[in-house]
Amino acid sequence: MKIMVLNGPNLNLLGVREPGIYGAGSYADLIAMLQQYAAEQGIELDCRQTNHEGVLVDWIQEAMGKFDGIVINPGAYTHTSIALLDAVKAVRVPTVEVHISDVDARESFRQISYIGMACVHTIKGHGLQGYVEGIQFLQKYPGN
Ligand code: DQA
User: What are all long-range contacts of 105-109, with beta carbons under 8 Å and residues at least 24 apart?
Assistant: First the structure.
């Protein structure tokens, strides 16, 4: 099983960025934790981070026909990007949206998710563990 794990803008700054909201773990810590889980489960993970919306669109398109699922934290593009919504709709790769923080309990502008309208599942407010839960959801997803 092959899963693409995508992180959007500012998630490279995990651990430094607003630790009261996003926690003390770094991006490297996150990837190490996910790769360890994947190795135990015999899953192949391809983890990528970018600050650029179009690069996320390119990577979602790249997953088409090659990956069994996508776990994505689009960062702030969650709340603005119809291009990401359209990309997920286009490729028909089951996609789980993950947010480290509980976006529903924050500012009202974080309560809209465009990409979420095309995702098979959304996990919010479970910290870095939410990414593992996203992978677990895809492991159980019909067809996988
Ligand atoms: C986030 C929540 C977004 O509102 C924010 O812009 C982020 C991170 C989260 O993981 O909680 O960059 O997606």
Answer: 109/79
* 99 CB within 6 A, ligand 1: yes
Q: What architecture (CATH level 2) is domain 2-138?
A: 3-Layer(aba) Sandwich (3.40)
Q: Which of 103, 109, 114, 123 is the best mutation target for the ligand 1 pocket, counting ligand atoms within 8 Å of the beta carbon and taking the most?
A: 103
CB of 2 within 8 A of CB of 66? yes
Give pLDDT tens digits for 21-37. 999 999 999 999 999 99
Burial class (CB in 10 A: 0-12, 13-18, 19+), 106: middle
**Is the pTM of the predicted complex or chain greater than 0.85?**
yes
